Amino acid sequence: MSNVAPVVFVVDDDPSVRRAIQRLVESVGLQVELFGSAQEFLRSERPDAPSCLVLDIRLPGISGLDFQRQLAEANIHIPIIFITAHGDIPMTVRAMKAGAVEFLTKPFRDQDLLDAIQIALERDRTRRVQETEVAKLRERYESLTPREREVMPLVVSGLLNKQIAAEIGASEATVKVHRSQLMRKMGAESVADLVRMAAEMGIPAAKPKAP
Amino acid sequence: MISASAAMTGSYDYLQVVLSVVIAISASYAALDLGGRVTAASGWVRRAWLIGGATAMGFGIWSMHFTGMLAFRLPVLVSYSWPTVLLSLLVAISASAFALYVVSRHELGMVRALAGSVIMGSGIAAMHYIGMAAMRLAAVFRFHPLLVTLSVAFAIAFSFAALILVFDLREETKGTPSRKIASAVVMGAAVSAMHYTGMASASFMPSTVAPGLSHAASVSSLGNAGIVIVTLIVLVTVVLTSAVDRRLASQRAELERGRELATINEELRKEMLERQRAEDALRRSEDQLRLVIDTIPALVWSASPDGSLDFLNQRWLEYTGISSERGLGWAWAEELHPEDREGFVNAWRSAVATGEPFEHDVRVRRADGEYRWFSKRAVPLRDELGHIVKWYGTTTDIEDRKRAECALQEAQAGLSHVTRVTTMGELAAAIAHEVNQPLAAIVTNANFCLRQLASATPNSDKLREAISEIVNDGTRASAVISRIRALLQKSPPERVAVNVNQIIQEVTILLRNEMTRNRVSLRTDLAADLPRVSGDPVQLQQVLINLVMNSIDAMRSLAHRPRELLIKSARNHNEVSIQVQDSGAGLDPERAEHIFEPFFTTKPEGIGMGLSISRSIVESHGGRLWAASDSKGPCSNLLYQLSST
What distance in Å separates the CA atoms of residue B291 and residue B294, rounded to the nearest whole number? Predict the structure, then answer.
């Protein structure tokens, strides 16, 4: 998976600027794809590879910031580097808060753009690895029995077997079996490991009923 | 007892016969004469003439007859029963009266003439035979029927001829005296012929019976002469009276004519006076008109149909200081400004050729050598066939107006410059972006080049490509700068042939970013074969920028509708229209009237000069700018139209 070549997407309505960025980015050995508008980008088939988006703030029909929000809403988590010919502070703040990697003012220093692209790609790689990890955990979680799924949040919350048995109305021995099965199926080496997995999958620890 | 012996032979007294014929002719003449008088008169005069005339005529006829009878001598004593004689006289007068009545009518048809002649002839015949019946002698009459009939026929024929003749001759003017006399002779002869035929029809048989001599009287030679003389006197009197009356009548007529003539003369005199007065008035009004033309504070002239000047008023001569020798004919052309001369003369010749009303501004040299602007206008005067008979013209000094116009133009140019600068200020961000775009590309490309050069194996193809893009972008940035500089520059307005579509393209390039920033999508609809318009490109761009900026502002508040802007150019006959339409809320009719007023604005930070300036710019180009209503729902729709070159 890590051998897939990363791609840099450029969305700018000025063809001359687009071509210049392409030239520069390709010169450091990265693959570049150019788009004249946000719609064009959305319609394209993007490869499953680490990627980032170099986005002009002013686009025909929609502003870059609005497009950033649209992507987030559509669950497309691609790191964005904004470029603008005439940016202001409020715009920058809004972009950065919404998770932009960098906000560059035209004309920008070439190294700044290339650095930002590197950071963005790195961030995307990490995100992709994380996404793979969570997918694996979800797969393991799917193999659990309902009883084991019931026991998991209780274990994660740090309860003893006896307490869990009382909580679910089973014998302590049964709980012990469930627990060992759960740990084995999830591939957790310790309770701490299981807690991390639950956090990654977004499964909250259960709260004991009454002490 | 009557013996059947041979008829008595009578003899005629020839002197008496001649006398009777003379009386007949005289009576006829009197009848002809009277016919005219009776016809000419009217009322009681006419009646009097009828009665008098009938009496005279009847008396004449009777007298002829009686004289004719007396001329016949028989071997026996002949006496006459005087009541019967009187009766015959009455019959003669009645027949005459009837005859005169008939001929004095306005018309005498054939039927009336025949009937009249039968009655008159019968009357005369009756008179004749009654007269004969008055004879008292010792003999009996035997009438030869054929001759009696002949005599009656003669009487009727004579009457017919008489009626026709009298009727024909009654008109006083018609018929000469000789003709009248000739007619009288014919008539007299006819009457005599009738009489002697009548006499011849009778033959007298001797009778022993003594005639009844009661009331009888013999006619002595003296009596006979008396009758003749009285008759002639009566007839002469009648003719004389008639002549006098006619004379009087003609004198009356003459008098009448004289009075008429006097009236006509009077009228003529009045008319002449009137004409004299009218001529005086005309002369006065002409003088006055001339005075008006010479003193009116305008320079007035006229020209013959060929265009040469034939009149210049006093003011013209005084104001221009040009003498009539130098002004009349075609000499005036020399006084025109050399730059204007050819154009003006051509325009004037073309007006003269086509007959179109003429209007042209031209600089004319005054006596002091200064050229001043004049507006010359002229209209042709045509005759009823439409041919030009004269050109009438005025020359108006418009130097001051021209100067004021120039000053106004300068002021307007200044104002439009200020608003242009203001607009450019509003556009600063867009302009910065427009310059920054090529700069960003240039810097990026240049950096790429540096990287390539720093590497061990620079790719020369890539380098060339990048450098040529740098050149392109540099040119692009410079074009934007010069476009802006043109808009910011304060230069006098010029007039060149302008391609409207090019103006639209320039403006859309300049404002592309402003539109993008405001998320306005632009659509242009440019007509392909637009004629060029005469105008100032910078000013025309300014108008369009203004309209587009307004549209962008108008759509700024639109959240749920697409922000669309349409710029359309079209040809409308020999005009070019440019339309700017947006999808904004539109203009309410109340505001639409005010948007072109200075200092009217709907924008919080606007100064309200944009549309006012735009309109004056368009109007200075001979065009117009207005807000058009569109049925397609709310949107502002501004149009301007310019005439093509």
Answer: 5
**Confidence band (pLDDT; 50, 70, 90) for A32?**
very high
Query: Is this complex scored with an ipTM above 0.85?
Result: no
Search chain A and give the residue with CA nearest B512. A60
**Residue B469 to chain A, least CA–CA distance (Å):** 8
Q: Which of B46-60, B326-340, B431-445, B452-466 has the lowest mean pLDDT?
A: B46-60
* B35 has pLDDT over 50: yes
CA distance B482 to B143: 152
* Cβ <8 Å between B441 and A20: yes
Q: Is the pLDDT of residue B274 over 80?
A: yes
- Type of residue found at B372: R
B556 touching A (Cβ < 8 Å) = no
* Tens-digit pLDDT profile for residues B387-425: 889 999 988 888 888 888 888 777 777 777 777 777 777
Task: Calculate the CA B387 to chain-centre distance.
Answer: 17
Residues A23, B441: C-beta atoms closer than 8 Å: no
Mutation target vs A (from B431, B435, B437, B511; most A CBs, 10 A cutoff): B437
Q: What is the pLDDT of residue B237?
A: 74
**Neighbour order of strands in the sheet with B358-365:** B309-312, B299-303, B388-397, B371-382, B358-365
How far off is chain B from A22, nearest CA to CA, in Å?
10
Query: Cis before residue A107, ω within 30 degrees of 0?
Result: yes
Average pLDDT over residues B486-511: 81
Q: Looking at the complex, report in whole angstroms how far the Cα of residue B438 sits from the nearest Cα belonging to chain A.
A: 7
Contact call for A85 and B476, based on CB within 8 A:
no
Give the separation between CA B465 and CA B443, rounded to whole angstroms.
14
Query: Tokens at residue B417, please?
Result: 């410059």
